[in-house]
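#lab-general

N.A. 3:47 PM
ok so I finally got the sequence cleaned up, no stray characters, all 372 residues accounted for. can someone with queue access submit it? mine expired

B.Y. 3:52 PM
send it over

N.A. 3:53 PM
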Amino acid sequence: MKKLGLLLGTLLLLFAAGCGGPLEEPPDRVPVSEGVVDAPEAVVRWAQYEIDQLVRMLETDGFYGSDEAGLITVDILDSQIFDLHLERELPFHQESTLKLYALDFRLQPGELPDEALFILDEEDWIPSDYNFVYGDANGAELKQGQLYLLITENGAGPSSAGIRRAEVLTGEWATDLQAYFGYPPGVHFDQSPEAIQAIRDYWKWDEEWCFTMPNEEWADGDWSTGLGYAHEWGLGIPYEFLGWEEEPAQDLVALSFAIVQRRYYEGLTVVTFDGFYGDDQVSPNFSPVQYIACTQPDCRTSRGVSVGDTVEEVQTAYPEAFWNDQVLVYAPEGTNRSILFIVKDGTVVQIDMADGLDGQYTTPAGIIPTGA
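B.Y. 4:20 PM
back already:
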């Protein structure tokens, strides 16, 4: 899955051309853009916040270039908003308003690891157009078109709903945008407290469905990461953090969560659902873990099985497991959850844990931990 630009963009030039006609040849350089900043101070701060998230991704999380380049990070020396003005207001949730502010910005890079990474302007800055992919009204990636900072207002002060890109700001585009965010009011506002609690109960923590890994810096020397609700679950993972990517939730997931996010560690990939529609502004975000893929040999299941164990050891610990191609599957009745032991030459080379939501996994989802 590609990283979508709902919250953060990723680099335009790293994507291949999609379906349709041939990709238009990008320019080598672009003029220095001009615009006007005409927005309340609070909106300017939200625009800067969204830009800072992009800067953090470039400097800290990085992005993946070619196989040879691996993870790339870029130092950003400065940022500049040169256009921010209100273009349209839309009705939104519970008598609130969604305001679309046209936004353009540029980033001043330090020394670039590869001059071809970005299309620069004539002053060697990175303009927001041509370089960063953001979602359109339906979340599909766009390389060019006007950026819009989405600001919601309900009497309690403005709040950012992220950045979107539009080729043309039409009434149909605006309707699609409202529908994407659940307008008219959707599950977040219609579900009863009992229904919301039932979702939370479904994702309650269960030690059977977790990995335990050594972490000498933690109180008891271990850290557990498993399926279900685990707020701030990533704090104790001892493996090197390599980056993350996210996309809008779809299908069944979208009934309760807004975002699917993958976090990559050395030998460990974790998929979480974020943006729970039942969250309030007091409680911490409810973000359950849905899928884990592991190749770390010191990471064990609740029954003590690790990567490197033999088929015989798996079958002793999980006598209920059955074969599906080269995978031993533990999928007990009465649950949608599975543990997948991927086997090569009689030895476990990867272990996945999954919650299938509406059915059990019997084959791996193709999530291979980066750095494995």
